[in-house]
Amino acid sequence: MTGFSSPQRRVLIIEDDVELAELTAQELSFGGFTTYIAESGAQAFELLKRHPISLVLLDLMLPGEDGLELCKQLRGIDNPPAIIMVTARNELADKVAGLELGADDYVVKPFESRELLARCKAVIRRHAAPQAQAETAVANAPPSRYHFLGWQLDLNARQLYSPQGVTISLPNSDFHVLLSLLEAPNKVLSRALLLRRAFGRNLNYEDRAIDVCISRIRHYIEKDRSKPEIVRTVRNEGYILYIDPQSLHAE
Predict the structure, then answer these.
(1) Region of residue 64 (left: phi > 0; alpha: psi -120 to 50; beta: else)
(2) Looking at the record's lineage, which domain of life comes first (predicted)?
């Protein structure tokens, strides 16, 4: 472990290349992070049991392990940390697959230390935002839960509850996209706006991250996501949550 203890700045580096992991840990510690290193998924989960990790840097190319499956497992634990994928291949398919499984962002090897620090800070800031909102004074607190069409979105737990009572732990990006849509029902939100809210970055024409988030949200709430009725695409403009206002309320 390197760095000083800080509740929201603890990073777990899952990387089999010890030299690279130690170098990354050193760079992050200079940026004010406390870091832990795991060379395998098994070591990672042992560390997660013992330490309140806020962010995981996950190498997708671990020998003998499926990095994408490990990403999925991390998303499924209680109070899951934010996840940044680390990949040696600048392949769109790798990025999309990781985002679909719940990663919050990605970096491509080799990466600049300043870029990595900036992405870590941005992801942790977004990941911690709902908890920070919940800790505001009750009189001034924003809604803690949205009810819509039998579904419930818990802003504090960042979980979605189905009409049948099934609990879905949302990736950080999906949470922010769905929350943005619920806050502005029946209004078109641009992909650029949703991208800034979900990932903290500006849109470029190749960036399909928001489309991946929308696809996952449709998978959660639509009867037939190939023919969406709730989250609709507005061609050349963005997305809209199409809903009867009487079917939506916050508390």
Answers:
(1) left
(2) Bacteria
